[in-house]
Specification:
It contains 11 helices and 10 strands. It has 298 residues and is α/β, with parallel strands linked by helices.
Length: 298
C-alpha cells in the first residue's frame, strides 16, 4: 500500500513538473536571435561603403558572431529579390526569419497599392522561408488626423489578414512620430486593430525613447508581441553595443519567460551623433549576442 502511494505521488509530481520543464525547453528551442541590418549599414556608411556591395562579408560576420538570422528589408520594387536574399542567408548558414518594411497605410488613395505591393513581395518571401513581416506605417511630418488613423487601422487589419492567408505573421513597429501626444498613434495602432491579425514588433528602445516605460508597454500589449528589436542607451544616448544601460533588460527577460512570450530577437544597434564608438562593428555585434545569451538564456 505504502509503495503504491509513493508511486502515485511520484507520478503526480512528474505530471506537474515535466510539462513546465517541457514548455520552458520548447520556448528555448523556438528562440532565435538575429540582427537587424540597419546598424551594419550605418558602420559601412561611415567608411563610405554601400552595405549592399558587402552583403556576403556582412552575413559571414553575422554567422560568426553566433546569430541565427539577419533581418533585412522587404524589397517591394523587386519582389524576387526577397527570394535571392533568402538564398543568400541560407548559403551563409543563416535562416530567413523576418523582414522589415514601411507603408503608406493612412491614405485611402494609397492603401490599395500599398497592401498589394507588400502582399506580393511578402508572398515570395514566405515561399522562401520567411516567417514575419514587421511594418512601421509611414510618418507624414505631422500627427495623423483621427480619420487618417482610422484608415490606417483598417489598412493594418487588411494587410494582416492578407499576410495571414499566406502563412506569415504581421507586426506593427514604431519610431518617435507615433509617440507624439501621449503616444496617440502608437496606442491607436493596437486599440483599433484585431489582435488576431496585427501583432507587435516590440522595439524596446524606440518605445522607451517615446516616453513609455518598457514594462508598461509589455503589460498593455505584451500578448501581441511576435518579434523584438533590441537596442540600449546610456543617459539617453544610443550605446555602441547591447549591454546594461537605461533599459532594464533583465526585467524584460524575466517577463518574457514568465509569460512565455515569443523569443524572436533582432539586435538592432544604431549610431547617433553622440554615440561613443570604441570598437568595430563586428565586435559590438559579437558582444551584443553574448549579452542576449547572458540575459535571456538563449
Amino acid at each position: 500500500m505504502r509503495s503504491s502511494r509513493r508511486s502515485f505521488l511520484k507520478c503526480i509530481a512528474a505530471s506537474s513538473f515535466f510539462p513546465a520543464v517541457a514548455a520552458a525547453e520548447m520556448r528555448r528551442n523556438n528562440a532565435l536571435v538575429g540582427t537587424q541590418l540597419y546598424g551594419w549599414g550605418q558602420y559601412y556608411q561611415r567608411e563610405g561603403k554601400n552595405m549592399s556591395d558587402h552583403m556576403d562579408e556582412i552575413l559571414s560576420a553575422v554567422r560568426d558572431c553566433g546569430y541565427d538570422y539577419a533581418e533585412g528589408f522587404l524589397d517591394l520594387s523587386n519582389p524576387n529579390a526577397n527570394a535571392r536574399f533568402a538564398k543568400q542567408l541560407k548559403s551563409h548558414g543563416l535562416q530567413p526569419v523576418a523582414l522589415y518594411t514601411g507603408g503608406r497605410l493612412h491614405e485611402e488613395a494609397a492603401v490599395e497599392k500599398t497592401v498589394e505591393q507588400i502582399t506580393r513581395a511578402a508572398r515570395i518571401a514566405g515561399e522562401n522561408g520567411f516567417q514575419i513581416i514587421n511594418c512601421n506605417p509611414d510618418p507624414i511630418g505631422r500627427e495623423k488626423s483621427d480619420q487618417e488613423l482610422t484608415v490606417q487601422a483598417q489598412s493594418l487589419n487588411r494587410l494582416g489578414a492578407e499576410l495571414k492567408k499566406i502563412g506569415l505573421k504581421f507586426g506593427v513597429h514604431n519610431h518617435t512620430p507615433e509617440m507624439q501626444n501621449n503616444a496617440r498613434e502608437f496606442h491607436h495602432n493596437f486599440n483599433a486593430t484585431d489582435r488576431k491579425l496585427v501583432g507587435f514588433c516590440y522595439d524596446v528602445h524606440w518605445v522607451f525613447r517615446g516616453g513609455i516605460k518598457p514594462p508598461d508597454a509589455l503589460k498593455q500589449y505584451g500578448s501581441r508581441v511576435i518579434s523584438w528589436h533590441l537596442r540600449q542607451s546610456r543617459d539617453g544616448i544610443w550605446w555602441e553595443d547591447l549591454s546594461d544601460g537605461d533599459v532594464d533588460y533583465k526585467w524584460i527577460a524575466a517577463y518574457v519567460n514568465e509569460h512565455a512570450l515569443p523569443q524572436i530577437f533582432s539586435v538592432e544597434l544604431a549610431l547617433e551623433d553622440k554615440t561613443k564608438i570604441t570598437r568595430s562593428c563586428v565586435e559590438n555585434h559579437r558582444r551584443s549576442r553574448d549579452f542576449v545569451r547572458q540575459i535571456f538564456g538563449i
